[in-house]
Amino acid sequence: MSRATDVSTAAAELAGLLREAQSVVALTGAGISVPSGIPDFRTPGTGIWENVDPMEVATIQAFRSDPARFWSFYRPRFEALGEKTPNPAHEALVELEGWGLEAVITQNVDRLHRKAGSSRVIEVHGSIQTSSCTSCPGTWELDEVEALFDDDGIATCPSCMGYVKPDVVLFGEMLPERAMTDAAELATNADLMLCVGSSLEVYPVAGLPEITLASGGRLAIVTQGPTPYDDAADVRMNGDVVEDLEAVLEALRA
Ligand code: ZN
Questions:
Q1: Residues with CB under 5 A from ligand 1 (ion)
Q2: Where are the domains of the chain?
Q3: CATH number of 1-38+86-125+170-254
Q4: CA-to-CA distance for 181 and 25, rounded, in angstroms?
Q5: Model confidence over 105-143: pLDDT tens digits?
Q6: Separation CA 204–CA 202 (nearest Å)
């Protein structure tokens, strides 16, 4: 079977699942933002992660012990991420709200689902949208953070001089409880979970498809590369995330 036939067959199957489903939830990861020019940090030798080990720099321990070094890594990444725009894969998930998609659960911190216009976004790893003081309730929008840096390159709270931290979940930090509760509830109630651009390997997010399956729901996976749920998925699309989702929309409109 040709690649084109593969895509259209899988897209038609997924369109069928979407038509049947009463409650659909999407679970997205880094792969959906790659077409927006945001490299997946697990891909070696790409962009901003090229010369740095995120496990060494983007940790809560690194933030506490050496905030200047942390920010020397994060500050340009913040600026770069802030300028990125949604791509047609993000937009496809907005359009899928017309076919029962209730919410997007995302591991991404780039806020591109919100920028695209998705109405309900659960950001289980937080977002670059805001940064907060670690010593007082102070909080700032992304475009206000640049003004907080002191001469050492550390974002500092103007009221209490505490360290200001981006509201993203760093390695070594707990995931936000409210977001995970919402995500688990959505996974339980979904009769279809559409996983897009995630290798579904990072727990606890990687446990969400299991919750949907255990509740009698189905899985569809649109992701390049293997996932632990490939055998459990009713539909598995493996190609370019934009092309695959556009093929699904085309099948739905037909
Ligand atoms: Zn403060």
A1: 133, 135-136, 138, 157, 159-160, 162
A2: 1-38+86-125+170-254, 42-83+130-168
A3: 3.40.50.1220
A4: 14
A5: 999 999 999 999 999 999 999 999 999 999 999 999 999
A6: 6
